[in-house]
Amino acid sequence: MKFYAIAVYSFLYIPIAIIALFSFSAGRSASSFQGFSTEWYGRALRNPFVMEALGTSLKVAFLSAVLATVFGTMAALALTGMRGRLRAVFDTLVLIAVMIPGVVIGIAALIALVTVFNAVNPVLEALMGQRLSLGFGSLVGVHGMFTMSLVLLLVRGRLETFDRSQIEASNDLGANPFWTFVQVTLPQIAPAILAGFLLAFTFSFDDFIMAFFVSGSETTLPIYIFSSIRRGVTPEINAIGTMVMVASLILLIIAQVLLRMGAPQAKE
Amino acid sequence: MLDAYAETGEAMRASSETIGGQDASHDHVAEFVNVTKRFGSIVAADRLNLGIRRGEFLSFLGPSGCGKTTALRMLAGFEQPSEGTIRINRSDMSAMPSYQRPVNMVFQHYALFPHMTVAQNVGYGLRQRRPRMAKTEIGQRVTKALNTVRLGDFSERRTWELSGGQQQRVALARAIINEPAILLLDEPMAALDAKLRAEMQRELLDLQRSLGITFVLVTHDQEEALSMSDRICIMGGGQIAQVGSPDELYDRPASRYVADFVGKANILLGEVVARQGGQAKVVLGCGSEVLVSEASVDNRHNVEVIIRPEALGMSAAPQNGTAALRARVTHRTFLGDHTEYRLQVEKTGALQVNLTRQAERALGGRGVGDDVYVLWEDGAGLILGAED
Predict the structure, then answer these.
(1) Percent of chain B topping pLDDT 90
(2) CATH number for the domain including A217?
(3) How far is A178 from chain B (nearest CA, A)?
(4) A170 touching B, CB under 8 A?
(5) Considering only Cβ atoms within 10 Å of each terminal Cβ, which end of chain B, N or C, has fewer?
(6) Cβ-nearest to A173 among B78, B161, B178
(7) Which of B 128-147 lie inside 8 A of A, CB atoms?
(8) Contact B107 A165 (CB under 8 A)
C-alpha cells in the first residue's frame, strides 16, 4: 500500500518539483541545472508580454469570480428553499456543469458565441456601427458561467447545515427578510461565499483550455505560456509557472481555512 | 431586577381582572375566528374558534399532527390561515407579517444565532426597533433580561458553549425582552431530560406569574399541560376538542377523545333507566345499577360512562348503600403512593381502579385471581356527551 502511495504521489509531484527547481537554474537549459540564480524570475517580471498577459488574467479572474460569486450565491439561496423534482433537475444540471471536460465547454461556448455573434452582428452594425467578437467579454462570461457552479456547490453545502428556524426566529424578533439576510444568513455563509470567490478566481486564473477557445485576440497568462513553449522551453517559463502555482496554492489554502471556519461549531 | 418585571406584571394582572371581571366577556388578547388552514388536500386546522385571555397560561394539547403547532405558527405569522381571521389586540393579522406582530416565540430547538454572543442574541429584538434604541438602553435591558433567567454571568459566552437548559433560558430571555403581548412556546421542554424539564416548568410558571405576559404553550405532554396551564385547548384531527381549565377537562370531559387523552379513564357502556336533577340511573352490562352525573341532559338510552380509576373503591364484601360490581383482579401494580388494580368485570369489560395504601387495607389481603367488589359512589362518573 505504502509503496503505491509513494509511487502515485511521486508521479504527480516530481515533475512539478523539477519545474520549480529549474526555475532557479542559472543556465538557459531546462534539462541541466547550472547553479542557483533568481535571474529568470527577474526576467519574467521585466518581460512586457508576460506582464500584459498577467494583467489580462487577473482582470478576467477577478470579474468572472465576482459574477460567479453573486449569481452562484443567489442560486444557492434559491435552491435551498426548493424541494422535490425541480430541485433534483437543478442539482443534476449543476453537477453536470462541473463534470463536463473543459475542452467540451470551450468548444461548445465557442460555437454558441460565434453563432450568436453572426446572428446579431449585422443588426448591430447597421444600428450602431459596432460588432461583437470574441475577447475579454467572452472570457469573463465563460469563466463566470463555469465557476458559478463551483460557488453554488460550496455555498449550498454551508446552507445545508444552516438551521433555517433561525430565519423564522429573526422574523419573529422584528427583522424583515432583508435585515434577516444581512444579520443572520450572510454572516454565517460569508466564509463559504469568500471561499467560493477564491476558488472561482483561482480556477479562472489557471484555466487554459476554455480560454484557448474563446479568448479571441486576448492573451491570458496560461495562453502566453503555451505559445512560448512552442518557441522552446526556457527557465523563464519555469519561473512564471512556479509563481502562478505558488499564488494559486496560497489562495486555495485560504479558501480551505475559510470553509473550516464557516463550518458549524461542534457542541461542547 | 426581578421586581421591576414583577410590578408591571401585577399591574397588568389587576387591569385584566377588572376588564375580565364581567362574567364571560373576557378581555381577549388574541382570537381565532373560524380559522382553517389547508396544506394541499390536508386540513391542518379546521374551523378554529378560540379566545385567548389576557394574562392567562393557555396550552394547546394534542398528539402530533393534531394541528396545535399550525395554530401556534398562524399566531406567530409563519403560516397564513386559508380561511378565517386571527386577531391580536383586536386588530386583524391577515396582512401583518411575522416581523410586525406583537408576539415572540421560543422555538422547539431554540433557534439561537450561533454567530452571536448570548447578550447579542438577547438584544437582537431590541436592535431591530425603529427608531433605533440607544445602545446603553439595550445593554441595560439585556442585563435585566439575563438576570431574570439567571444567566447574568453568561452574557459574553457563545450559545453553543451552553447546556440545553441554559440555551433554553437564552431563548426565553430573547423573547421576553421585547415585552410581547403573547409569548409563544413551541414544545420548549421536549429536548430536555426529565429532571431539568420539571425544573424549567416551575421556572416558566414563576416567570409567567411575575411578568403577567400571556403564555401560549404547545405540548403533547398532558402532565405538562395539566400542571402549568390556566386553560387547556385540546386538539384532535385539526379541530378543537374542548377548551377548559385542567380540572374541568379532567372532571367533565366533553368527549371520549378528551377523556382518553387527559388522565386515565374507564369507559363503560350502559343503559339509562331513569333521570333526575343532573344525575341518571344507569344499568351496566353486568346488571349493576349505578347513579352517574350527566352534564348535558339528552334522551339517549345507550350511553358511555366515564369514571376515573381513583374515583372507584374496592372491598372484599359488598357494602350497604353503595353500588358494587363483582370483579376479578387480573393485575396489581404497586406504585408507591398508590396501587393500580386491573380488574375484569363480567359482561362489562376491563376496569382500572387506583387505591391508596390506606384504602387497600379494606381488601383484606385479596390479590390477583381473587374476586372483589368495585364500589361506585352515587354521582361518581359522568355520562359522555353525544359524539357528532
Answers:
(1) 62
(2) 1.10.3720.10
(3) 11
(4) yes
(5) C
(6) B178
(7) 128-129
(8) yes
User: A105: how many CB neighbours lie within 10 A of its CB?
Assistant: 19
A268 part of a folded domain: no
What ipTM is given for this predicted complex?
A: 0.81
Q: What is the pLDDT of residue B298?
A: 75
Give the residue from B17, B30, B377 showing the smallest Cα distance to B216.
Answer: B30
Higher-pLDDT residue of B388 and B105 is: B105
The C-alpha of B37 sits at a distance from chain A's nearest C-alpha, in angstroms, of 19
Single pTM value for the model: 0.79
Average pLDDT, chain B: 88
For chain A, what is the domain count? 1
C-alpha closest to that of B48 among B24, B73, B27, B25: B73
Task: Please give the Cα distance from B125 to B138 (Å, whole number).
Answer: 10
Chain B residues touching A172 at Cβ < 8 A: 76-78, 98-99, 103-105
| Contact list, B178 vs chain A (CB under 8 Å) | 173-174
pLDDT tens-digit map of A71-125: 999 999 988 878 778 888 988 888 888 899 989 999 999 999 999 999 999 998 8
- Domain span at residue A49 reads 2-262
Given pLDDT bands bounded at 50, 70 and 90, which one contains residue A258? confident
According to CATH, the topology of domain B2-15+25-256 is Rossmann fold (3.40.50)
| CA angle in degrees (0–180, nearest 5) for B54-B80-B129 | 60
The string of pLDDT tens digits covering residues B157-189 is 999 899 988 999 999 999 999 999 999 999 988
Residue A191 lies in a domain: yes
- How many CB pairs below 8 Å do chains A and B form together? 68
Asked if A178 reaches chain B (Cβ–Cβ under 8 Å), the answer is no
User: What per-residue string of b and e applies to B240-260 under the rule 16 or more CB within 10 Å gives b?
Assistant: bbbbbebeebbbbbbbbbbbe
Q: Looking up cell 450561533, which residue turns up? A: B114
Q: Is residue A30 pLDDT above 80, yes or no? A: no
CA distance B122 to chain A (A): 10
Give pLDDT, residue A80. 85
A180 occurs within a structural domain: yes
Task: Report d(CA A193, CA A184) in Å as an integer.
Answer: 14
- CATH 2.40.50.100 in chain B, residues? 267-383
B105 vs A169: CB contact, 8 Å cut-off?
Answer: yes
Q: Is A42 on the interface with B (CB under 8 A)?
A: no
CATH architecture of B267-383: Beta Barrel (2.40)
In the sheet that holds B28-39, the strands lie side by side as B42-53, B28-39, B83-88, B91-92
